[in-house]
Each structure stands twice: as structure tokens, then as C-alpha cells.
Amino acid sequence: MIRYLDHKDKDKWEKLYHAYADFYKVPMNSPILDTLWNWILDDNHIVNGICYELEGNIVGIAHYRSMPRPIKGQYIGFLDDLFVEPEFRGQQIAQKLISYLKSLSKANNWNGIRWITHSSNENAKKLYDKIANNTGFELYELKGD
Length: 145
Description:
Layout: E1 2-4, H1 10-23, H2 30-41, E2 48-54, E3 57-69, E4 74-84, H3 93-107, E5 113-115, H4 122-131
């Protein structure tokens, strides 16, 4: 079952998000987790969180937001984070979460959903290549001081 994250989900969500950060080798700490969790629960904030619940246990999470796409003069949905517990992979949970976002795209009149993944994430890319178009764009980041 796919549903929005709720206050009661914090501990399980935090465990999954730690695993997500570990996968990408990004240091994680309580201030970052608290900030993101508050964004997700704040109705006035841009970040939304959904989860995949199986037998009362959260086994997958996704964070997304609406964002403008100036070149099209429209809004799109942007999938920031997607993670499924390793032992539950192969059950189409990631695909179901993305399909749910596709339905949100239609409901919100977005011009589609976009996301990025690391070039080394071969398992995810196998799924993404089946269900979406690779835009061919490269990602650059200019870090602040």
C-alpha cells in the first residue's frame, strides 16, 4: 500500500533514509534528518513524502516536489529520493512508487516527472530505462562556500 508519510513513521523513515544516504556515501546526521522530516510534515513546504507499506512495515520511501520547468512554461514533479529496503527489492515496489507519482502528475497537471540517479546505480538504471526516457543531460553542481 502506498500512502503519505505520517508523524508515527519517523523512526522507520529515519532508518530507511540513513540507508539511502549510506548507499550514496553521503554523511547523515540528526540536524539534516530533523530538517527534512519537518519539511515533509509541513503542509506549507515544498517537499512531500510517500511510503510503501507492506504488512504494517514501511519498506520503501520516496520524496518529491513540484517545480517549474521554464523551457516548457509548465510545472513538473521532481523525484528527489527513492529507496527500497534491499530485502524487498524485486517486488516492483520502486516501480509502484513511481507509478503513483505518475498519477499525481496527472492530478496536479504536471508535465511529467523527472529524477536523477548516479551513473553507478546500475540496478536502478535497469528499471528507469524500462519505464522512462533518459534525457541525456549531465548534472553539474556549483557548491556554495
